[in-house]
Amino acid sequence: MQRSLEDLEKILRTQVCSVCTDRLEDGNCGLEDPGDCALFRMLPQTARAIQATDSDDIQDYVRAIRENVCLICRDALPDGSCETREQVRCALDAYLVLVVGALEEATGKTFDHVPAGVSAPLIMPAL
Ligand code: SF4
Ligand code: SF4
Q: Rounded distance, CA 80 to CA 78, Å?
């Protein structure tokens, strides 16, 4: 099933923002500028990268995000490093397991990358 980007954003705001450490008690984003959140700033590219990847290995998704999203993200340095990622302040990177699961479910793809019972966000190691 194909969903619009607006639908995907709503799903991610429910599934990711709800567990994000930057979320305020009132439910709003606690970033100084919520528009800075790479998860939503780069959502079209992220959705395409995840849909183009079909793997049970989360590292394949990490690679797809690095190659298709980080490469054009304003926060990435020319050498591919990212201070935001290193400081675990990129929600896309920090909650990638949740993001992949939410987008794959929303678009009707099979999802079995997260072991049963895991509901907390997983912090992905930097490549
Ligand atoms: S930083 Fe991003 S994921 Fe976290 S609450 Fe704000 S908008 Fe949601
Ligand atoms: S890890 Fe850094 S470069 Fe990649 S999307 Fe997040 S903020 Fe952008």
A: 5
